[in-house]
Specification:
alpha+beta, 2 domains, five-stranded mixed sheet, 5 strands
């Protein structure tokens, strides 16, 4: 957490743009000199942490499992550290940077350091959701959309839009592709009916990759009905699926066996 997330991703990103701004603007030359010295010092801290983690994860599978579990837990919250109050991106744009640039730098930083530490980004669920193999600016666009919809970096009330749901379901599709690659494909179609946004469905074929579409599936195997806000809570792990069923916040119709498998197909 400290060497890779707090220092290697968050502090490194903030330090990079702060350093760039004071150098480019010519403001606070003494501070600019100081931040250059801090950057040199921090690089040693991060390198030490990466080397130690590499030694642990390459010699002890339990350490690797624990490290990945920690990353999956904290990365969705790390997005909130970069988010200005009230999601007012002018805090960044007035300095000459877009939120997409900042998040792309942070993602590039953590993915590069993970590879050096012996943890492929393809094994980290939260990076899979963002499309770790895609250009970092595309991943950053997804992060911004999910932040603006209250999916990432917050425990507050979600405020879903069509763009938020489009991005969320694209992430779910990537996740389903990832989980289905290691299990027997289910060969099913899951339909979501929302009270406040367009319906969507996820097709899980016997062969080929899963796909997401907007609308009503001709013959869904399983149908889920809930509010878009509650599905965001379920998908982000803030609302347990079984609890949602017991309280009728989530209603299901169709293949019950598939419903029971859903947390393994789309783990929060």
């Amino acid at each position: 957490m400290y060497h890779l997330v707090i220092e290697g991703m968050l502090a490194h990103t903030g330090q990079h743009y702060l350093r760039d701004y004071v150098t480019r603007s010519g403001f606070l030359p003494g501070f600019a000199q100081g931040i250059n010295l801090v950057a040199r010092d921090e690089s040693r801290h991060i390198a030490f942490g990466i080397q130690l983690l590499r030694e642990l994860v390459t010699t002890n599978p339990q350490c690797k499992t624990a490290a990945i579990a920690t990353l999956n837990r904290v990365l969705p919250w790390a997005a909130g550290v970069f988010t200005p109050p009230n999601i007012d991106w002018s805090y960044l744009t007035r300095l000459g940077y877009t939120p997409q640039e900042v998040f792309a730098f942070g993602l590039r930083s953590i993915e590069t350091k993970l590879r050096r530490a012996g943890i492929p980004p393809s094994e980290v669920r939260e990076l899979v959701k963002l499309g770790y193999a895609d250009p970092h600016i595309e991943q950053a666009n997804r992060v911004v959309a999910l932040i603006e919809g209250g999916v990432l970096g917050t425990n507050g009330t979600p405020h879903p839009t069509e763009n938020t749901m489009h991005t969320l379901f694209a992430s779910m599709c990537k996740l389903a592709t990832w989980t289905q690659a290691s299990t027997t494909p289910v060969g099913a179609t899951i339909q979501w009916l929302f009270d406040d946004v367009d319906p969507r469905y996820l097709h899980l074929p016997h062969t080929g990759e899963p796909s997401v579409s907007v609308g009503i599936a001709p013959t869904p195997t399983l149908t889920l009905r809930c509010t878009a806000s509650d599905w965001i809570r379920i998908a982000s792990g803030r609302l347990n699926q079984q609890q949602a069923l017991l309280t009728r916040r989530l209603r299901i119709k169709g293949d019950i066996t598939l419903a029971l498998r859903l947390p393994r197909i789309l783990p929060a």
